[in-house]
Amino acid sequence: MDVKNVRKDFPILSTKRNNKPLVYLDSAATSQKPNQVIDAISTYYKTYNANIHRGLYEISIKATEAYTESKEKVARLINANSYRNIVYCKNTTEAINLVALSWAESNIRENDHILLTKMEHHSNMVPWQLLAKRKKAIIDYVNLIDSSILNIDDYKEKLNLNPKLVSFSHVSNVLGTINNAQEITNLAHKNGAKVLIDAAQSVPHMPVDVKKLDCDFMAFSSHKMLGPSGIGVLYGKEDLLEEMPPIFGGGDMIRSVDFSESTWNELPWKFEAGTSNIEGGIGFGAAIDYLQNIGMSNIHQHEIELTQYALKRMSELGYIKVHGLGIDKSSDNNRSGVISFTMDKAHPHDIASIFDSQGIAIRAGHHCAMPLVNKVIMEPAVARASFYLYNTKEEIDQMINAFEKVKSILKIQL
Ligand SMILES: Cc1ncc(COP(=O)(O)O)c(C=O)c1O
């Protein structure tokens, strides 16, 4: 991977912050966008802006084709059968809520179990809590080992509760742990549970194959994978999507409407009521082209190298506590480019502010995983650096230097 060339495609990466080149280490929150994506959206606005599906004129047909083609690109990226498996939502959160409000609403009953893990993002907890309240269902959580990895024995034990659904993050947005999605899915299926994978932090960063995994549902967001915000994916197996009722009614999602009742459009449009995020879909398609041109395996490998390098340099400092697998236990298979950390005597918000003064953007807080951060890691907040295809070892060196700045500004001896 030629990172120097990649960086040239991202205009924001040549801007300055506080008179220093921007070092963007917050891609787990949202990624930066290459010219190819910006241009695809701007070309749509400038040359073929029109509503989709209904128009009989050229630019509307072109917009419709571009929008549908973007779904075909998503399908190819994750090896889904076809665009019919790809429902566009606002984001990962909405995709998970769609499963909760449609499939789960029809299939989860009183006293049924739903199995999650203790490393979930709020997006993969709160929809289930709302559902559990409505249905009087029960949520169980798989425990972690060393606050870092899933305890598979605990998972197997909790499968004995016969959950109807197992839902888990493929990659933790706090710990960077890559969960063994294949093993988790196989075990769930052997036990008769359906499986939803929150792939918000995996699909943007590594090859993911829904056919091989055989998951029933998968959710992820365009904005974390070089595309625009406001568009995300619910992948679903066709038979499940067919049997699920729509949750939003309106234009585009119908086949026919009468005064008393209506029938639904075919997949995936049945779930997409009203005018779609057309420019979002078009930009997302351009983002997928960009990622696939480089190759998801190459991107993953690059991030592994950055992560191992950062973990090593952070451990050499001697005063950084990494939450998640450290340099001694991390490997290509279990660790992605998200590193959460704390430092004695320095609040994560102070670390983030001092980093910002050096032009370095990291995140600090609970990262929308309050139960994990507060009750498992047992910290009020953690700082987090996350990497993507455009980051470099030099940027990690700058981050390492910024730790010394934190020490000197806060006057702490460690
Ligand atoms: C693991 C995980 N799940 C879900 C989400 C929610 O994504 P979105 O805000 O795009 O819906 C995130 C976002 O950070 C995430 O990291």
Proportion of strand residues: 15-25%
Radius of gyration: 22 Å
CATH class of the largest domain: Alpha Beta
Ligands and ions found = pyridoxal-5'-phosphate
Rounded mean pLDDT is 97
Distance between the termini: 38 Å
Integer count of domains: 2
What's the CATH superfamily of the largest domain, by name?
Answer: Type I PLP-dependent aspartate aminotransferase-like (Major domain)
Number of strands: 19
Total number of helical segments?
A: 14
Strand order of the largest sheet: 4-12-11-10-9-5-6
- The outline comes out as globular
Largest sheet: 7 strands, mixed
Walkthrough of the structure:
With 414 residues, this protein is of the alpha/beta class. The chain has 2 domains: 139 residues, Aspartate Aminotransferase, domain 1, CATH 3.90.1150.10; 255 residues, 3-Layer(aba) Sandwich (Aspartate Aminotransferase, domain 2), CATH 3.40.640. It has a 7-stranded mixed beta sheet with strand order 4-12-11-10-9-5-6, with helices on both faces. Helix 3 packs across helix 10, helix 4 runs parallel beside helix 5 and helix 11 runs parallel beside helix 14. The mean pLDDT is 97. Bound molecules: pyridoxal-5'-phosphate. Pyridoxal-5'-phosphate (PLP) binds next to helix 4. Pyridoxal-5'-phosphate binds next to helix 4.
Write a concise synopsis of the structure shown.
With 414 residues, the chain is an alpha/beta fold. It has 14 helices and 19 strands. The two termini are 38 Å apart.
